[in-house]
Amino acid sequence: MSAAPVISIVTCFLNQEAFLEEMINSVLNQIYTNWQLLLVNDGSTDASKTIAKKYTAQHPEKIIYLEHPDCANLGLSASRNLAISKSHGEFITFLDGDDVWLKEYLSNQLKVLRNNPEACMICEASEYWHSWHSITADIVIPVGSPQNILFQPPQLAEMLYPLGKGAAPCVCGIIVKRETLVGIGMFNEAFSGMYEDQVFLMKIYLSEPVFISSACYNRYRQRANSLVHASHAQGQYQAIRKRYLLWLKHYLTQQPNRYPTVELLLQQALHSPKALDGVVSLFKRVAGKVSRTLKGGLVR
Fold first, then answer.
1. CA-CA distances (angstroms) from residue 236 to 61, 136, 230, 233, 260?
2. Are 88 and 179 in contact (CB under 8 A)?
3. CATH architecture of structural domain 7-296
4. pLDDT confidence of residue 265
5. pLDDT at 129
6. Whole-angstrom distance, CA of residue 48 vs CA of residue 25
7. What pLDDT is attached to residue 235?
8. Which residues contact 85 (CB under 8 A, 6 or more apart)?
9. Beta strands 91-94 and 7-13, pairing class
10. Where is the Glycosyltransferase 2-like domain (predicted)?
């Protein structure tokens, strides 16, 4: 790692005029300043493009505006891949257009990387952010594994959603080495919306050491019209999850190493109707924590 590595921040947005400025300002306010921000317009029809271009004009040395040909909507994976292909950072991190970081986010992630040079990716806890628009208490959800530990392949694949019971990391709490991301083929564009992050994460869980941090310097905005909420409302979630599991089954056959426990968990997920409801169970656990937090107060 260089003394002050460039960190490339990938932000994809689609019609997020209400949140984009707050997100960009949270990057501009970072204590660590050697970063570049790549803003990818994934087909917005509102004022998001105007907002993004305004900040690009104000900070041309730091912020890059990108869009697909004809300003098409190609999905998260294609948009992230476009940004990665135009980036030059030693590390890549992600912040969607409606989420925000606390000012210490980049500096703390870099500190954790320096203290754990073997790690190819750092995943921290995330604050599920309800209070931006409601009286529901915010709740910090750690990654669902033992904390502040370096994990070797395939431990996290066995522990974390969607095969394990532990909560998966949020993309806004992840930083990964560029060479690692390129080495796994970046994002799979066959998954354009939901589960694109789980495909990316699983590839890393199966191939590289990952450090799980108990820190929390990101805020994951909770919205009723998010991808997950919308997929449940439209009855699509289980079909999308099944597609992911079938992708993983094929992917495992192509790997040089066999992971019997991962294969067993996959078979259980494919053949158990209850396993297809894993995200519902996770939401119930989060709701329970929120209820307990309202009674006892939030501890960061």
1. 42, 27, 9, 8, 30
2. no
3. Alpha-Beta Complex (3.90)
4. 98
5. 86
6. 14
7. 60
8. none
9. parallel
10. 8-123
The pTM assigned to this predicted structure is 0.87
The DSSP element (H or E) to which 236 belongs, if any, is none
Q: Which residue has the tokens 């056959």?
A: 253
Which whole-number Å values give the CA distances from 186 to 6, 192, 236, in the listed order?
19, 13, 25
Helices (H), the chain: 20-28, 48-58, 76-86, 105-115, 155-159, 178-183, 196-205, 227-233, 237-253, 260-271, 278-296
Query: How many CA atoms within 13 Å lie on the side-chain side of 151?
Result: 25
Residue 277 corresponds to which tokens in the numbers above? 């409801």
Q: Which residues of the chain have pLDDT under 50?
A: 229-234, 275-276, 278-300
| Amino acid at the residue 131 | S
Tokens of residue 91, six digits: 């590390």
Tokens of 8: 């490339």
Tens digit of each residue's pLDDT (9 = 90 or more) over 243-294: 999 999 999 999 999 999 999 999 999 997 554 454 444 444 444 443 333 3
